[in-house]
Specification:
The complex is a heterodimer of chains A (about 375) and B (about 260).
Chain A lengths: L2 E5 L4 H13 L3 E6 L5 H14 L7 H4 L1 E5 H5 L5 H6 L2 E6 L9 H21 L5 E4 L11 E2 L13 H14 L5 E6 L1 E3 L13 H12 L7 E5 L7 E3 H14 L4 E5 L9 H11 L5 E5 L12 H9 L1 H7 L4 E2 L2 H9 L8 H13 L14 E4 L5
Parallel strand pairs in A: 1-2, 1-4, 2-3, 4-5, 5-7, 6-13, 7-11, 8-10, 9-12, 12-14
Helix pairs in contact in A: 1-2, 1-9, 6-7, 10-14
Chain B lengths: L2 H7 L7 H31 L3 H28 L10 H15 L3 H24 L7 H31 L1 H22 L7 H5 L15 H19 L3 H9 L14
Helix pairs in contact in B: 2-3, 2-4, 2-5, 3-6, 4-5, 4-7, 5-6, 5-7, 5-9, 6-7, 6-9
Classes of the chains: A alpha/beta (about 375), B mainly alpha (about 260).
Chain lengths: ~375, ~260
């Protein structure tokens, strides 16, 4: 039996990968964890996801799961010869930082730690290195984001995308067979709506709307929101894509895991979906540029909301175009790809609101009018 | 309804291990915050050119020290595990920054760090410990309410100084505010968490086995409360809304806790 080493198993995507490896492979999985992370919680979370998605859980999974401490790798306390004997099928590197504004930490985790695991993989003769990157590692580019090594863009949305691109380059030039998976913004399950991740992206937006406006609702809103599609990806589509890519893509592949632009909702539609189901303010005005927002006139809460999601809103304001060759190839082999649509996002939003202590209770009888800010006015 | 009755209604067990460990964790951090404030006010006293301010700073330092003692006694009375010295790296980074500013004679940065940033966070902490958006025992609530009044006064006196400082040199004020915000606020937001770097080890409790949910609160809400009050305090000082938003936009540490971000 082969063994897979997985980093980031305590995180959202890493844990989904762990669930998938339990369910869809026979390999033993060694998760690299920080000393203060509880391995049983990581295991239970992965098993919980399988249960929540109505898949059988068998005792054998526990026997296939073990952990090693990240610090022991740094301190060279790991018995490399022992790992070599285990016949390491792959190292899947899903650990990462998304703290957009902490360059030191992004460098440490996304760049340096990737180097550490590449070196580690070489030492233990791992046959393959799988890196979980991001669809936005290309930075701001008007060109098609190809499934290949990326050129330097004119600009990056944040240091985060830069750090992920650098990590991809480290992996691609390492000499180890690799697979680089680039998911877009991962949201809940397309059918069940459940989401076990941290509050990033759309979930950060929902959480802020819910918590910030817990005790007051503004009648008039001014929001930065475009009418271009926002590339969301259901977690089940990510899982399916990972599984098929891992088992069927040739060596040294890149895979943009995204949804199709023509069915995706736009940020404006997403706000409408939220307001129509929750706060129902009297008037919402959408802006195309952050600088056009009348900041000084906004309520304190709207200012905080707009400020906190500014970077994500700006990223959402850009029209990325992604190559989908790998997806087409895998679909021909039998992979099922479920796009994110306004209807499927509504499933996720409904689950979020059901768990909310605020949103649904504030539902009013009023109707909201939506307007676009007139640029020339 | 009494705190105890509210707790029963919400399945909060004031005598449970999780609640006790959580309160011990919060008290340890609150004590660390008070000790940091003692150091900061003492530093500010040493560089203040105005003898009246020296006295005020030393009085404030004394008050913060007495808060630390109150909290220490509370921990003893509640019989919860507690650490009474500064452990977490974020607190040490804050002390280091303010000490450096004081060393450079930069009283404005010290005011910003201590009286605007640390005091706003202290106010939010004591509001939560008082029972605002949380469910806490009577003793904790009572002590927190007492300390809260002092912290509001410290914030008020700092705000008066800072409001004048904007008028005296607006451009210089904004440069200093951005610099201090970038150093201090990420550290403070990183401290609002359910886990730790080394504090749990020192407390002798298992990290991750308790959370603020054990007092009917949640981390997201706490961070939002902290940010809201920080913005409100800057509004009161007279900081331009556009400038405040530029600070809010790039606040590192708000959405993620770096030490838990990997593996």
């Amino acid at each position: 039996m082969s063994t897979i080493i997985l980093t980031g198993a305590s995180g959202f995507l890493g844990n989904i990968i762990l669930s998938n490896l339990f369910y869809n492979s026979n390999s033993d999985v060694i998760a690299v964890i920080r000393g203060n992370n509880d391995s049983s919680k990581i295991y239970e979370k992965a098993i919980g996801y399988l249960r929540d998605t109505h898949r059988p859980v068998i005792d054998e999974y526990a026997a296939r799961f073990s952990t090693i401490d990240l610090q022991d790798i740094f301190d060279k306390k790991i018995d490399l010869e022992q790992l070599k004997i285990l016949d390491i099928e792959s190292v899947i590197h899903a650990a990462g930082s998304v703290d957009y504004f902490n360059e030191e930490h992004l460098t440490q985790i996304n760049i340096n730690l990737t180097s550490t695991f590449i070196n580690f993989s070489k030492k233990i003769n791992a046959k393959k290195f799988v890196y979980i990157s991001t669809a936005y590692s290309a930075g701001y580019t008007n060109e098609l984001v190809t499934e290949s090594e990326l050129p330097e863009p004119d600009k990056d949305p944040t240091f985060y995308t830069y750090s992920k691109r650098k990590a991809e380059a480290i992996v691609a030039t390492s000499g180890i067979k690799f697979l680089i998976i680039r998911p877009s913004i991962v949201i809940g399950h397309s059918k069940y709506g459940l989401y076990h991740g941290k509050r990033y992206g759309l979930y950060q937006q929902w959480m802020l709307l819910e918590r910030l406006f817990r005790d007051s609702v503004d009648d008039e809103w001014h929001l930065l929101a475009q009418h271009y599609p926002l590339n969301l990806l259901h977690v089940d589509t990510f899982e399916e894509s990972f599984h098929w890519a891992y088992n069927h893509l040739p060596k040294d592949s890149y895979f943009n895991v995204t949804s199709d632009n023509d069915v995706l909702p736009t940020p404006r539609e997403l706000y409408k979906l939220w307001f129509d189901n929750t706060l129902r303010p009297k008037r919402v005005i959408f802006y195309e540029e952050y600088d056009k927002l009348p900041i000084a006139k906004l309520s304190k809460k709207q200012r905080i909301f707009g400020g906190l999601i500014k970077t994500n809103s700006e990223i959402a304001s850009f029209q990325w175009k992604f190559e989908n060759t790998a997806r087409s190839y895998l679909k021909k082999l039998g992979m099922v790809h479920v796009n994110a649509t306004l209807e499927s996002v509504e499933v996720c939003q409904s689950v979020f609101l059901k768990q909310s202590s605020n949103g649904l209770n504030k539902l009013k009888e009023s109707t909201t009018t939506y307007e676009n800010h007139c640029i020339s006015c | 309804m009494s705190n105890a009755a509210v707790a029963v209604k919400n399945n909060i067990d004031f005598d449970g291990t999780n609640y006790k460990n959580l309160i011990g964790f919060i008290l340890s951090n609150a004590i660390a915050g008070e000790l940091v404030a003692v150091k900061n006010y003492t530093n500010m006293a040493t560089i203040s050119p105005d003898i009246n301010n020296v006295i005020v700073f030393l009085q404030e330092a004394l008050e913060e020290a007495s808060h630390a003692r109150l909290l220490q006694n509370l921990a003893k009375e509640l019989d919860v595990p507690v650490v009474t010295h500064i452990v977490e790296p974020s607190w040490l980074n804050i002390v280091k920054y303010v000490t450096e500013c004081a060393g450079n004679g930069n009283i404005l940065a010290c005011y910003m760090a201590q009286d605007l940033m640390l005091e706003t966070q202290a106010v939010v902490l004591y509001r939560i410990m008082s029972g605002e958006n949380s469910i806490v025992d009577e003793k904790t609530s009572s002590i927190a309410k007492r300390i809260l009044q002092d912290e509001l006064q410290h914030l008020d006196s700092g705000s008066t100084y800072l409001a004048k400082a904007i008028k005296d040199d607006e451009a210089g004020f904004y440069i200093e505010l951005k610099k201090t915000h970038d150093k201090i606020m990420p550290e403070l937001f990183r401290l609002i968490r359910n886990d730790c770097d080394t504090l749990c080890d020192e407390m002798g409790v298992t990290c991750g086995t308790f959370s603020v949910n054990d007092m009917g609160s949640d981390i997201d809400l706490m961070k939002i409360m902290a940010l809201e009050f920080y913005v409100e305090s800057m509004d009161n000082i007279g900081v331009k809304p556009e400038f405040i938003n530029s600070l809010v936009t790039n606040v590192s540490g708000f959405s993620e806790n770096p030490t838990s971000a990997c593996c």
